[in-house]
Amino acid sequence: MNLEEYFPIFLSIIIASLIGIFLLLIGYLISPRQKFSKKYLPYECGFDAFGDARMQVDIRYYLVAVLFILFDLEIAFLFPWAIAQESIGLNGFFAITVFLAILAIGFIYEWKKGALDWK
Q: Hey, which of 2, 37, 79, 93 has its CA 20 to 30 A from 24?
């Protein structure tokens, strides 16, 4: 193991760290420092809290979140599979078919629960 081969990586880390520290320091030095008593109230908006924080939330919010994760995972796994499709062969094809079947089951669940209906 030759440390000279890792020098560009160490140099990149040092330069990125220095740029980050410099930007934080500049932001701290030129930012306005005004103290408002209302700024330190809950939620930093100046309004008193209204309602209960433990109110009931519609299930569609959670279903939309699950739907987003479902399609996000699909894209995250399909791009590398498409790139390496020739080298992974038939086993990779069957693995991605099972993966897409599981995603399809999740999509059907979302559909049946009404997450795709915007009433």
A: 37
